Structure formats: structure tokens, C-alpha cells
Amino acid sequence: MQKILIVEDEKAISGVLHSILSDELSNYEFIIAEDGLEGYKQIEKEDFALVISDIKMPKLSGTELLKQSLVLKPETTFIMISGHADIDSAVSCLKDGAYDFISKPIDINRLITSVKNALAKETLKKENKNLQNENKTLKKKVNKKYQMIGESPALKKIQDMIDKVAVSDARVLITGPNGAGKELVAHAIHNQSERGKGPMIEVNCAAIPSELIESELFGHVKGSFTGAIKDKQGKFEQASDGTIFLDEIGDMSLIAQAKVLRALQESKVSPVGSDKEIKVDVRVLAATNKNMQKEIEAGRFREDLYHRLSVIEIYVPPLDERKEDIKLLVDHFSGMIADEHGTAMKKFDEDAIEALKALSWTGNIRELRNVVERLIILGGNSVSKEDVANFVRK
């Protein structure tokens, strides 16, 4: 049962408040404190749906009780009452965080209305908080394919960065070697952001021929080039209200880079063969395995685009720099592979894990996943050190 605290040094008044309010609010338990200090001790011990407090009291005044309690428990709702009411006192209490201020002699109907409204607001606040927590939890629930697994300092640093940048719309450049997990970082940022309910469109810039990248990103109209048999919506437009992930951005042609820069500057795109400009609301995440400073110096990447993309830069280290994560990764991949094959999860012996840690992982997490699948298929009832020696070529 939720509780209401009445802090009042005059027993006659606290008795009347308790009698009237308990009749109106039978589903609440009432606690009475005879001075501000006792009231504060009660608030220290437990949470109250509402605190009704006098202002003029011995040991600790109502105004000090309000201030100190809101430092301790900022969500506490206060209604202040006083026989020495004036505008300054009322304004001061409301500025300090009180829900309402009622002067003595107390208008009972006014008090009951204020108390009920305060409790309704408190209930709504809790419901909203629960919904926000549920929403946050849902956003952090990522498809197993995109889970970030590990407890190494390097991974914790990345996760802290993700938590900070996800809430903004800042562009992020994710760097690191192939197979290290840059795509996972991009998905985590998207899923934890306000755009998580919108689309996440991925573009592998290295896999699309340079002559088609502009059409892929910005779309085209029918007849704009040979093979354009109908209008096509581009990836930027598809990602509107969501996120576009430009993977391997370092492999994009200079012509396409210029178009992307314009799209970022103006939040507009023009399909190939069209004079029409389309407004897009999209967050841009990009990734590369290249040293961008060297690419800029060599004239292969525009410096102005680099600065547009790298408002925040997150480096994903190779697996060889976080080998303490290998056991957790092996367990994770074993579970995934068991689900895919419809079989029981296969155990990896401790000496097998140590043997895997001793190896060099130039292909990073992607290579480890393939090795785990190979060992599950070819190994014994449980994967041993000997299985690693027999089936992993290094």
C-alpha cells in the first residue's frame, strides 16, 4: 500500500488532516511526523506517494525539509501548508519544487482537490517512467546477430561511448579493422537512439560500382541512364526518419563523396536525372577500415566530408587486443550455431578456450565465429584443446 506523510507539529491539525484525508483516500496508509526532522528521517527510510508539510516547525522548517528531501529523493511530491502565508513564501516553495502551496486556515475542499491532483500526477509520472524504462529496454534488445559480446575494458569503453552518442543525432565515424565489429556498433547506436523505431538502411560502399553508387544512394528517375526502366528510391530517402549506415566509406569515389557532402549540408537529395530535391531527415553513421588521414593526404578522400562524418569517432580494436572476450564470444557463437542447426549447444573445454586465446586472430571476430562453427561440426562431444590443434590452421 502506498503511503502519505503528514508533517505537522500541531497535533490537532495533523489529526484533522489524517481524519479527512483517510476517509477520501482509503487505499493509502498515512504516517504522521511531529516535526521537520522526524519527517526527514521518515523520507530517508521509505518512499511516499505524497508529503504534506507545514512550513513553520521546530528542529527543521518545512522549507528546509522540502529542499533536503528533494536532494535525497527528487521524485517526491510535496504540498506545503502555512498559517503565515504570503506570496513570497508560496513562490519560494513552488520554485524549490513543491507541487502546491495552501494557506491556513485550510480550505478542506481545496486541499482534497490538490491532494487528489498531486496523486494523479504522481501515478502518471510513474506510468510514464515505466513506459520509458520499457522503451529503453526494448531499444537495447538487439537481434542476436548484432549483440556486442564481451567485458574487456576496450569493449566497455565502446559501450559507454554508444550510450552517450545514441541519444543525440551526431554523426559517428566507426573505425577499425575488418571483422572487428564496426557494424555491431552502428546497430547498437541506432537501436538505442530515438530513431530506433525507424529504418536502418545499410550501404556497403565498397560493393557498389562507382558508376552506380549515386543512383544507389540518391535514387534515379526512369530513363536517366541505360537500364533505368523505372523510378527508384535512393537509400537516403529510404532511411528518412531513421539511420543510414555507410559502410566502407573510404572506398567511395570522389564524385559520390561530393554528392554525399551536399546531402549532409542541405539535408536534401536529388535523384539521378531529376531536378527535383527531396528533403530527408536521416542520421548518418559511417565506417571504414582505412587510415583516413592517409587517404586525405593521398587525395582519395575529401577532408571536408571527413570532418562532417566524424563529429564523434569510435575506434573498434582488433580481437587480438581484447582476447579476454574470447570465452564469452565462443559461448555466444555456440548458442547461435546450436539454434541455427537445431542441435544442443556444444561445450568448449577450458583448455580449448586457452588454446584459442593463444592464437592470432587477423580476421577478428568474423574469423572466430567461423572457427567456432568448424569446431562444433568437426570436434568431439565437447570441444577440446586437441580439436583446436587439429582443425584450426594458423
From TrEMBL:
This is Transcriptional regulatory protein ZraR. GO terms for biological process: phosphorelay signal transduction system; regulation of DNA-templated transcription. Gene3D superfamilies: 1.10.8.60, 3.40.50.2300, P-loop containing nucleotide triphosphate hydrolases. Residues 117-148 form a coiled coil. One of its GO terms (molecular function) is ATP binding. The modification 4-aspartylphosphate is found at D54. It comes from the Bacteria. Residues 148-377 form the Sigma-54 factor interaction domain. PROSITE patterns: RESPONSE_REGULATORY, SIGMA54_INTERACT_4. Signal peptide: none annotated. Residues 3-119 form the Response regulatory domain. Keywords: ATP-binding, Coiled coil, Nucleotide-binding, Phosphoprotein. PANTHER family: TRANSCRIPTIONAL REGULATOR (NTRC FAMILY), TRANSCRIPTIONAL REGULATORY PROTEIN.
